[in-house]
Amino acid sequence: MKDLFSAQSELYQQARPTYPQSLIDSLIKQLQGFDCAWDCGAGSGQLTRLIVPYFQQVIATDLSQNQLDQAPALSNVNYLQQAAEQCTFPDHHFDLITVAQAIHWFDFEKFYAQVKRTLKPEGVIAVIGYGLLALDDALLNDRIQQLYHQTLNGFWDAERRYIDGHYQTIPFPFEEIPMSQFQIELRWTGQQLWDYLNTWSAIKHYQDQMRVSALADLQDILLIQQPMQVTFPVLLRVGRQSI
């Protein structure tokens, strides 16, 4: 499992989008128990805080302690620094295991072995993420598309292909549950968009290798004060532990 975000943990916590409540509601309906959930690759708790109200206990893990330090302190959440592929939890312990915007960094085979060991019979695993944003401003959207597909071509980690494939190409050895499609809809200022773009791993790779910012030609974004419509497609695979 890679750790690319420790150095940007505070910005990541502030700038990354939040999942819609409708997604959480739909996921909760699939569950048969609500004792304990594991949010794996929790980062700074973007998903953790959304599932907390439904469980007696939530365990949130991440490889990055810096990320976990940015997560909210919640009475029924235990934050642990652990690799996804080497967890220390008891067998058949969790009603729900979630992975949000992280599974593409995991060793699939080793992680799924832990999922099958720690998930209760008929427990549910939910692999969640979001793809490339779209803006209602057509000209600005074209510039972001060019940044993503052209300027940063060759600077994305190879694992990014799983997000580009909307998680449909990852292995998923579970009894899959059909789910509705969801999207994240936000109103962002130019500053919020700028901050989000600066959390892209490819932006950091570009800066490290080229010694200049890939966002140099986009600094006029910071002048946009009127909130603009921003939409992300939600990536979702949900499955049940077969008995």
Automatic annotation (TrEMBL):
Pfam families: Methyltransf_11 (PF08241). One of its GO terms (molecular function) is S-adenosylmethionine-dependent methyltransferase activity. Residues 39-126 form the Methyltransferase type domain. The keyword Transcription regulation does not apply. Signal peptide: none annotated. One of its GO terms (biological process) is methylation. SUPFAM superfamilies: S-adenosyl-L-methionine-dependent methyltransferases. It comes from the Bacteria. Keywords: Methyltransferase, Transferase. The keyword Protein biosynthesis does not apply. Belongs to the methyltransferase superfamily. This is Methyltransferase type 11 domain-containing protein. It comes from Acinetobacter vivianii.
